[in-house]
Amino acid sequence: MGEYSKIEWTDHTFNPWVGCTNISPGCDHCYAESWAKRSGLVRWGDHPRRRTSANYWKAPLAWNVRAEAFGRTHGHRPRIFCASLADVFDNQVPESWRSDLFALVRQCAALDWLILTKRPQNIAKMLPGDWGNGYGNVWLGVTAENQKYFDQRWKHLQKIAAAVTFISYEPAIGSLRMPARGPYPNWLISGGESGGKARPLNPQWVRDLVGDCRRFGVAPFHKQWGTYRNNPLVVEQDMSVKIAEQLDKFGKGGGLLDGELVREFPSQARRPGRQAA
Predict the structure, then answer these.
(1) Fewer CB near the terminus (10 Å): N or C of the chain?
(2) Domains of the chain and CATH, by start
(3) Residue 168: what are its φ and ψ, rounded to 5°?
(4) Residue 45 Rama label (left phi>0; alpha psi -120 to 50; beta)
(5) Distances in Å between the alpha carbon of 61 and those of 56, 110, 242?
(6) pLDDT in tens, 121-172
(7) What per-residue confidence (pLDDT) applies to 7?
(8) pLDDT at residue 189 is higher than 70
(9) Which pairs with CB-CB distance under 8 Å and at least 24 residues apart come from 4-9?
(10) Phi and psi for 79 in degrees, rounded to 5?
(11) Rounded CA separation 28/21 (Å)
(12) Distance (Å, rounded) from C-alpha 10 to C-alpha 12?
């Protein structure tokens, strides 16, 4: 949980609390659960969540103060992945904690908060009362590991007003295509599963989905193949893993798609909404 994140699509991570319960196949090899087991700080599953320290909660305030300088250096507002080790819209989280989090989000108006959930059915009832047409600095996303979970979860998220909506197709463990008709999310992240038990990712799934994104005006961001066993250089061109490692060093397992690094972000233009203050 750190100052600068190694996740390619964010700048910082912030966990207001830690702990979660696995609810779908994408959770089977959850890195956050593995972290919990190693750290011993929280028990995964149907156990109390653990709120992080008051001192740790000061980090976003410091990032907010430095946001203008960060923007001059990096060319964009600081992006904060909120709750990489939890789920903001988890039923087992005390409502007061969530209220405190959104108060912090309002206070840190110079940061873009990226909130990703597997529980979009809870979003509407758990948003703050002043959400209105959305906070201008909050991006809302859902994880969808295959078509089934995209269809289940996107139908909830698309009903929520937000500055940016996005899909995290990670870990990608089945094919996923955009529907023929919108509405569509603003952004889609794709990525293969990593680790010793990584499940296979067919490169064509990503190729087809990136094509859909460009057809329908969705910004695609392909993070990684997860393992070189999924990399198209190995799967489709019969290269050895050793050679693929030399040619494609972008992320775990590489990240090039047909020789291109596909890492786009949604437009920074904001839809009308309440600006956090």
Answers:
(1) C
(2) 12-247 (3.20.20)
(3) -105, 100
(4) left
(5) 10, 10, 44
(6) 999 999 999 999 999 999 999 999 999 999 999 999 999 999 999 999 999 9
(7) 94
(8) yes
(9) 5/81, 7/81, 7/84, 7/223, 8/221, 8/223, 8/224, 8/251, 8/255, 8/263, 9/79, 9/81, 9/114, 9/189, 9/221, 9/223, 9/263, 9/265
(10) -105, 130
(11) 11
(12) 6
> Are 131 and 156 a contacting pair, CB within 8 Å?
no
Pairing status of strand 187-191 against strand 164-169: parallel
pLDDT average, residue stretch 101-113: 98
Confidence grade of residue 4 (pLDDT, cut at 50, 70, 90): confident
Return d(Cα 176, Cα 116) in angstroms, integer.
Answer: 18
What local confidence, expressed as pLDDT, does residue 275 receive?
47
Q: Measured between alpha carbons, how far is 82 from 15 in angstroms, rounded to an integer?
A: 6
Structure tokens at 5: 């994140």
Residue type, 10: T
